[in-house]
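Worked example 2:
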Amino acid sequence: MKKFLILIFFWSFLFAYEGEEKYWIVFKDKGIYENVSLAKGSIVYERLKGSISRRAFERRLKVVKDESKVFDYYDLPVYEEYVNRIKSLGIKINVISKWLNAVSAFLDSEKINTVKSLPFVASVSPVAKSVKTYAEVYDYGPSERQIRLSGVKKLHEMNIIGKDVIVGVMDTGFRLSHESLVNVDVLAEYDFIFNDSTTANSPQDSPNQDFHGTLVLSVLGGKKEGKIYGVAPGAKFVLAKTEDVRSETPAEEDNWVRAIEWMDSLGVDVVSSSLGYIDWYTYKDMDGNTAKITKAADIAFQKGIVVVNSAGNERNTAWKYIVAPADGKYVIAVGAVDSTGNIASFSSMGPTYDGRIKPDVCALGVSVFGASNGSSSSYVYASGTSLSCPIVSGIAALILSTHPELNSFEVRDAIRNTASRANNPDNDYGWGVVDGLSSALYHGPILSNFPEIKENVNGYEISVYAMSKSGIKEIFIMANNQKVPMYPVSENKFAGVLSSLPSQFSIFVVDNQNKSNFLTTYLDSKPPDKFYLSQNFPNPFNSQTIFLLDVPEPAQVEISIYNILGQKVRTLENRFFSQPVRGYRIAWDGKDEEGRNLPSGVYFCRLESQKFKTVRKVVLMR
């Protein structure tokens, strides 16, 4: 079988309240400096001017427009006697801030009371602790172009990075010792060629065996500051080594099929496959129903896995067309464009033999930057639909990380229907060049993959990024059965303050079209201690509503919808949970078992297990 290697952070919440913690000690005045002259030419003015650079002086002057106003009370030093008095109490000073007229110091409860009693102390308050572990700004290095042209840069800025999504990658092997891959979160790996759990090169392998897979994985999820960030750097990965570059036998297609079934068992959400098969097949077989690999790919898609595959590099060969399994009825086949958006000269074309449009979409596939297996720090520019494929796979992961309730078909709709030629698809570009941001917004408002949490004098500031095509109507925190509004603090960023930090809280957003989304954060990593079915949100609802389920132990659980007459109209879940789960999302689209829209009215969602039963009232409004 000729194959084508188609080339041309979990938070740590450690709030230790025992012993000494850092506090701000704010002073009432600046002592002997309180009433000094800051007039231009005064001794203090000249001393302060000499303490900063000329560039700093000019920067300040651009704001105040008057040299006599460049320095003010904030620039005066903290009174040294106040600092010495604090030190004399055996207190360790950490920072001295003239702007805040304060020091930060390590205090226990006894020292707090002592310091508060000092006549020159205005207040004592905790130093804010940030528990955010992901950077908002990435130094992409040479990979910036592929990130920008794929429309995902804004998503990264909003902390939408693929968190909690599992992506399966099938390829030739993976050199995880490369600097861009050492911090990739790999949940499992398996070599389907030599049947072991190592996907790096084995002694039997060709020296270049893992080149292709290493390159592809870096484009998808690599992380190296100043060099490369993949499209979904926050995703988790399952890796399968399925292709033996020494041979061209049908065994590799079998490896692919075996691997995708394995990935299905591990719960992957997206599969990225930069591989293709045509020898042993003819174009007539590219009908979505003949090649075994294509059948397996479509089955996986129907089981909820977003299968993304390279379209192939055959445009300039006698073959010309897409390759298996890109001919699948459901598989997202990815073609390649250059940086101007023009179709790459090598990118395989459609249609399938049975007349369906292919590829589905295109992404940058010319001169894409990625990791090389030459050394642990070597990189290369490469071209091919092998490189456009992981870009689209990464976008699928980003969509699912902010809309985890979506199924594989809904993810495909979001990717295709927001691409550049969605209104007029063809057999060169398919639905067009992908746009990560637009595809993420397709099904409604988006939220960060995680909130930022900072302790301050009022409690805990919770902030999150949110965006919608129609604008945000309302965004709020639900914690301890209390609704806390959030307010804009910068572009697309909202914040609210909780007086105390609960073990879990949710952030809800509603846009101007009444579409909604929410993010639930668990600060307690322990499994739930009881069954729980949340009230749905939104409620009332029109097109879709979401429930959250906690299961504390292995159990068979059925969740169904009943009408007001007590008749079951839809089963949402009926499955065995083999282990405890928390915050499992269950969506209902207001339809019955046959897919028909149900009328407006009151319905009831019932959870039933051997040990627990509960009901939630749901209002559907058409």
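The chain has four domains: 21-126, 140-441, 444-525, 528-622. The CA atoms of residues 570 and 593 lie 5 Å apart.
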